[in-house]
Structures are given as C-alpha cells and as structure tokens.
Design goal:
- The chain has a four-stranded antiparallel beta sheet, with no helix packed on it. It has a four-stranded mixed beta sheet with strand order 6-5-2-8, with no helix packed on it. Strands 9-15-11-12 form a four-stranded antiparallel beta sheet, with no helix packed on it.
- α2 packs antiparallel against α3, α2 runs parallel beside α4 and α3 packs antiparallel against α4.
- Helices cover 23% and strands 28% of the residues.
- By secondary structure, it is α+β, with helices and mostly antiparallel strands.
- It folds into three domains: 101 residues; 130 residues, Jelly Rolls, CATH 2.60.120.600; 127 residues, Domain of unknown function DUF1214, C-terminal domain (Jelly Rolls).
C-alpha cells in the first residue's frame, strides 16, 4: 500500500496526476452526504456551501500551513468556515505541531474571559479522532505585566516554566478564546515558535502536496460524514436537550470540563421553542442555534446565541430562552433566520457537579 512518506512514489503520483485525481474523487464522494440530507433546497444549498467551506479550511490547514517545523497559528473555524456546532463566543486558533519538536507560545494575556491551550493527537485530516495530550487554562498561566510564555514539549521544560504537555504523536495545538462581552474584552496577542531547530520552513515537495491533499480530502469527506451521523442521532430527541456523550466529545476534540447538550430543533413558522433551566453554578454557560450541518447560524447580523453575560435577567432567576422565526415578545429571543430546522447546543463550562437538563416545550403563537 502506498505511503505518502515515500518520496519516489509521491513524486510519481504527482507527475501522473493520481494525487490530484484522488483528491477530486474524495470531494465528489463528500457530496453524497449532502444528497442524503433533508429533501429541502435551502438545506441542500447550505450543505454545498458547507463543503466549499470545509475545502477552503482543509487546503489552508494541510497544504499551506502544515509544516510543524514552522508552525502557523491560523483561524481554522471562523465566521465563514464552521463545523461541529462551533461556538459563536469562541475565537479558535490552530497550528500544526509535532511531539518530535519543542515550541514556545508567548504574548499578552489580554482580558478575554476564558482562554484554553490544548495539544491533541493527530489532526482534523485523520479519521482516528483527536484525544487530548495536554491542557492549560489562562487562569493557570504565569502572567507578569500582561505577558506570559508557555513551553510545548514531551518532557517538562524546567522548574518555574509553564508547560503544555505533548506526546510523541501530538499533531495539533488548539487555542480557544471565549468572549462573554465582545465590546469590552480584549483577545490575547499570541506568537508561536519552534525552539529546537533552525528557523524556516521545510522545502515544499511532492510528499508535502500528496499528504496535504490526502488530509484535506479526508477532512472534507470525514468531518461532513461524522457530523451528519451525529445529526441523524439527534433526530431521536428533536426539540429536546439531553446530555451529550462526554467520552465521544473528548475523543473528537471536545473540552473535558465542558458539559455539552447537542441536539436538534424543528419548528413551524408559527411555533416557539421555549427552553428553561436553573442557573446552575459554573464558570459560564452558552446556548446557540446552528443549521442542519452543525454550522452556527450567522451571528454577525442576528442574535442566534446567548451566554451567561449577554442573556437578559428574568424575575425568577432561571434561564429562559425563546427560539422562533419572529420575535414572540419574550426574553432572550433567538432568531432561526428563516430556517425550519437545525442543530443546537447548550454548554456548561466548569459546572459544579452535574448541571440540570434544560426543559423544552413547543408552543404556538396566539
């Protein structure tokens, strides 16, 4: 079986076009995920856009910025590239790294509410999942005059230095920055460098493009298929918010100290989904609406998500959320942006004990 690390065979596949042909075939195969989706032109259109977004993300990650000897912090998921119920309150950064090397991440802490640095096995272009190999939160960093530095390595860097552990098969650095108040909180200024070898990128090669195209195709086909499977499972509890399998979330790169309630909503134009629960003690909570493909709705222009800071207070002190196509005149209304169905997610970050299961009910507008 061909291994992309074989320079001679990689060169041959680049020369005869097989590397490109197989990439295109994989993209074509990914299209079946959309064709198997709901029988709705708008949902299918969003599905095709979703595949173009994944393709753009994948090529940036695995062709342009895949060299762990010269890592690049990049926004893989953002306003126009989304997957897996991406959190609208988050600014995500990713970088290709390797447990074979050592790195230094440094900069200014800023004032963003929550900062987490995590190393994980593999990458989004592989099918084995991305279990964690190390984590450190902003509250645990040594910050002096707003500056900090963290060392990424398999072995501890030495006494008195902040350490983000890796393992031999670590392949990805993920930085999560959560805003609760976008207008007032300041994001960190971050810089990443390799410190165990010469500065500079490795020469681009047939192996690089062969491996890059393979991983890019795997992300597009694999991620779309995996999350389509999740959505299919959500159909068993439409308009409800049961707790999501924590072990599965961790395996796929989720955060172990976040309790997730992934699910699905479906509403007629005159229906309102009412969500209520106690304000359980936690660092913060977040709720969002997504489309069928688990892409967060367009939060740049409409209110499609809430957190413990942005939610309007209610008289009974409980969390109340209303989801509908038009404003029902209730607190904490979120718009479906004209859609009739999609995914949704409720998150508790660092909850004290087991948080409650939100109660959900659908009512018709009078």
């Amino acid at each position: 079986m061909f291994k992309p690390e074989d320079p001679d065979k990689a060169a041959a596949r680049v020369m005869d076009g097989k590397a490109w042909d197989e990439f295109c075939d994989t993209l074509k195969m990914a299209g079946t995920v959309v064709r198997e989706g709901p029988d709705d032109p708008q949902v299918r259109a969003e599905g095709l856009r979703y595949l173009t977004r994944l393709t753009r993300v994948a090529l940036e990650a695995f062709v342009e910025n895949a060299d762990p000897t010269a890592p690049v912090l990049q926004r893989t998921v953002h306003e126009t590239a989304k997957m897996g119920n991406d959190n609208p309150d988050n600014v995500y950064l990713n970088a290709a790294i390797s447990g074979k090397h050592r790195y230094r991440l440094y900069g200014r802490r800023g004032t963003v509410h929550w900062l987490e640095l995590a190393t994980q096995k593999g990458s989004y272009g592989e099918s084995r999942g991305m279990p964690p190999t190390g984590r450190i939160e902003g509250k645990d960093l040594t910050v002096v005059d707003d500056h900090f530095e963290v060392f990424l390595s398999v072995d501890p860097p030495g006494e008195g230095k902040d350490w983000l552990p890796m393992q031999e098969d670590t392949g990805t650095l993920i930085v999560r920055q959560s805003w609760l108040d976008r207008e007032r909180e300041v994001l960190p200024e971050l810089h990443l460098e390799r410190i165990d070898g010469p500065v500079g990128r490795s020469p681009f090669s047939p192996v690089a493009i062969e491996l890059g195209l393979r991983k890019a195709g795997m992300l597009v086909a694999g991620a779309s298929r995996i999350f389509a499977g999740w959505v299919e499972g959500f159909q068993a509890h439409v308009n409800e918010l049961p707790r999501f399998d924590q072990a599965l979330s961790d395996q796929m790169g989720g955060v172990p100290h976040i309790t997730y309630h992934h699910s699905y909503w479906r509403l007629a134009p005159d229906e309102v989904l009412l969500i209520e629960c106690d304000a359980h003690p936690c660092d913060h909570w977040n709720f969002q609406l997504s489309n069928h493909w688990m892409e967060s709705l367009d939060f740049r222009h409409d209110r499609i998500h809430l957190n413990s800071k942005t939610a309007d207070a209610t008289e009974d002190g409980r969390i109340h959320i209303a989801v509908s196509a038009t404003d029902p005149g209730l607190p904490n209304w979120l718009t479906t942006q004209g859609l009739t169905q999609g995914a949704m997610c409720f998150r508790w970050v660092h909850p004290e004990g087991d948080p409650p299961i939100p109660t959900c009910r659908v009512v018709r507008r009078g």
